[in-house]
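Notes from hallway chat w/ T.B., transcribed later so I don't forget. T.B. wanted the structure written out for a chain they're using in a teaching module, and asked if we could keep both sequence and structure tokens in one place. Agreed to drop them here.
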Amino acid sequence: MYEKLKNYALIICLFVFLFVTIGNALHLTPGAAFIGALSGTPLVIFGFNRWWDAQCREETRGEQPASEVMALGERP
């Protein structure tokens, strides 16, 4: 429960940050800044998740010896 609440709070903070940043940097009206932040928030989350997954794969790839790597379809 705490983890979900934390994730939702971070998403709201990201939305507010994008709303203020996009609105001020591009001198947009409040409605246009809202739409920009609304469409930018999922894009930033998606990009961060792809970057994080790539970082995790690189870390785990370097830790396993070649003899322990399983072929696709094999089960432990």
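Follow-up for T.B.: The chain has a mean pLDDT of 82. Might be a good example for the class.
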